[in-house]
Automatic annotation (TrEMBL):
Residues 299-554 form the Amine oxidase domain. InterPro entries: Amino_oxidase, FAD/NAD-bd_sf, TAT_signal, Zeta_carotene_desat/Oxidored. Keywords: Signal. Pfam families: Amino_oxidase (PF01593), NAD_binding_8 (PF13450). Residues 1-24 form the signal peptide. Residues 30-49, 83-104 are annotated as: Disordered. The keyword Acetylation does not apply. Gene3D superfamilies: FAD/NAD(P)-binding domain (3.50.50.60). PROSITE patterns: TAT. Transmembrane segments: none annotated. This is FAD-dependent oxidoreductase.
Length: 597
């Protein structure tokens, strides 16, 4: 097995249909600020200069919205490339014969139909030949494979719910969920019925119960997984939380898991979605999205400073007067602006909030309690096309909680051999590793205790254990050309490190997530850790948070420009009456009417 170190990023909201297959979610609480903000550009009434600190999805979204409204925007990014964890990157020294380098990434892009705000941005990024801009580069998958080790795999096609019920009565809801879970062969009928009942409790819970009660309850406890069969625990409790949100069912907030699962189920029922439940891009992320986005922002006048790491924010007279920047050469500079949008990941943003800044807004100190974990990608380059399934593979029994997608099948109009690498690579199997703290099957060590080469061998072995155990060889060692592991990960020493981690959601996390507007008049927060309707740390959350930050900035500046639309998750009108009844019950100290224990 040959190895290539890597450079890559992402934040995949994965597990495609496993999320759908265990759906339950939040009737969300974000607000729509205006109908069509992007078409009306206004002139700011106050200062016009904005320093956006961070060039990931949140930072680029903020720059996009501000530039359209007449502000002078400069984006400062600590890396040498834009796009944050969403970007793709070239595998070093992999191109031959005039081809492009092999594409690497932090992890595969997953843009489900439940997203509303990010797709709106994609439509507004011009792309040659696409009437709908970069949005036209989204390609739907049709199924998901849940790979079991030593068991028959579960193949779940999308559209499995059948004809969506015209009215979501409690009975119709239970029938739809039971129909979905019938695809999970081996689950006892009474456990399917029980889980459907737990989802009904969530779907009919009022917002206050979700925030004040279920936010404090782990998903494992909410679903009563400890009482159920091993398959129930693996499929409907542990697998969902570990593979989708990189946290453990025993500690993951029911509010977070339920919110996303509910949105997926509505998506499957054809309710309130932008498109199909599972969509990927039709090319490497930078080709299909990030590079056209940056070009468009430059055309709007946005300036970019790469290799600029924010070290400190200076507070004077109640306002931020400068950001202290360290460039790639180690020299420090002062960046001044009328407004500052902090669009860095929380683990980096909070290091820039000194005592004076934290004293000016005590909410910022609570961000120290937010937790991050490792969810990092590996790409395997194969010498033969390997379309395992037309969608994602969820290795639900793998110790390292792997999910994967064979990418070449979705890159229509591209001949992988002719376009990338040395002419022998025909496919890219992109894998996300969500669990770095459990022993593997080859070396008996955690991923953090392994070398980079050992991580690759271990991931490959775990995938083969789930795919090659039913009588045919899906993954062959002879087809493996090379691999690429996120260079943000440092392994092989006494202190493994990951420079690009993922916000996770143990119980109580919601109470520590800040709003986009701070108590400092000219400082605004944009990032997937900011409180948004989708709750989960995703590209959609980063996009929505940036829109909220821009709206707060517009208010502060006195601008007459239309505010950004912040589209909330879908809420089924038929269930609102049951939620109002539950609000009364909650106020009286009573449980949900459908919560039978």
């Amino acid at each position: 097995m040959t190895g290539r170190t890597a450079h890559s990023t992402r934040r995949a909201f994965l597990g495609g249909a496993t999320a759908a297959a265990a759906t339950a979610a939040l009737g969300a609480t974000a607000t729509r600020a205006a109908a069509e903000p992007r078409h009306r550009r206004g002139r700011p009434a106050g200062g016009r200069s904005v320093a956006v600190l961070g060039g990931g999805v949140a930072g680029l979204t903020a720059a996009h919205e501000l530039a359209e409204r007449g502000f002078e925007v400069t984006v400062h990014e600590r890396k040498s490339a834009l796009g944050g964890k969403a970007r793709s990157m070239d595998v070093p020294d992999s191109a031959r014969g005039g081809r492009k380098p092999l594409p690497g990434e932090h992890g595969f892009r997953f843009i489900p139909g439940i997203y509303q705000n990010l797709p709106d941005t994609l439509r507004r990024i011009p792309f040659p030949g696409n009437p709908g801009g970069c949005h036209d580069n989204l390609v739907p998958s049709t199924e998901v494979l849940i790979a079991r080790i030593g068991r028959e795999d579960i193949r779940v096609p999308f559209g499995i719910v059948g004809t969506p019920p015209p009215v979501l009565t409690p009975d119709a809801f239970l029938r739809a969920v039971r129909g979905l879970l019938d695809n999970f062969a081996g689950l006892p009928a009474h456990e399917i019925a029980y889980f459907a009942g737990r989802l009904l409790v969530w779907f009919t819970s009022c917002d206050r119960r979700r925030t004040e009660q279920w936010e404090r309850v782990p998903w494992f406890d909410f679903t009563r997984a400890g009482r159920m069969s091993p398959d129930y625990r693996r499929l409907l409790a542990i697998g969902i939380t570990r593979n989708i949100i990189a946290t453990k069912a025993e500690v993951a907030s029911t509010k977070t898991v339920g919110t996303c699962a509910e949105a997926f189920l509505f998506n499957l029922l054809g309710r309130g979605a932008d498109g199909q439940p599972d969509r990927v891009l039709n090319a490497p992320t930078n080709e299909a999205w990030i590079d056209p986005w940056v070009s468009h922002l430059r055309s709007l006048g946005v300036r970019f400073q790469l290799g600029h790491e924010v070290r400190d924010l200076t507070l004077d007279g109640g306002r931020i007067t400068e950001a202290v920047i360290q460039d790639a050469g180690g020299a420090r500079h002062s960046v001044t602006a009328d407004y500052f949008v902090s669009a860095m990941p929380v683990e980096h943003a909070r290091t820039t909030w000194n005592e004076q800044v934290r004293a000016a807004d005590p909410q910022l100190a609570r961000c120290d309690r937010l937790q991050t974990d490792w969810m990092t990608g590996v790409q395997f380059y194969l010498t033969q096309p390997t379309p395992i399934v037309h969608g994602h593979v969820n290795h639900i029994d793998s110790p390292w909680s792997l999910t994967a997608v064979s990418q070449a099948q979705f890159w229509a109009g591209r001949d992988f051999r002719a376009d990338y690498g040395d002419g022998t690579v025909a496919d890219c199997l992109s894998v996300d590793v969500s669990e770095w703290n459990k022993p593997g099957i080859l070396y008996g060590r955690t991923a953090k205790q392994c070398t980079r080469e050992e991580v690759i061998r271990e991931v490959w072995a775990q995938m083969k254990a789930g795919l090659n155990d039913t009588g045919r060889t899906v993954l062959s060692d002879s087809a493996l050309h090379s691999w690429f592991l996120d260079p943000a990960v440092e392994l092989g020493g006494p202190r493994p490190a990951n420079d690009e981690q993922l916000l996770i959601h143990p119980t109580g996390t919601w109470y520590d997530r800040p709003p986009a507007r701070t108590a400092i008049p000219n400082l605004f927060l944009a990032g997937d850790y900011v409180a948004t309707d989708i709750d989960l740390a995703t590209m959609e959350g980063a996009n929505a948070a940036a829109r909220s930050a821009v709206n707060a900035l517009l208010d502060e500046s006195g601008s007459d420009a239309e505010r950004c639309t912040v589209t909330p998750l879908y809420r089924a009108p038929e269930l609102e009456g049951l939620k109002r009844q539950d609000e009364i019950r909650f106020s009286l100290g009573l449980g949900n009417a459908f919560d039978l224990g």
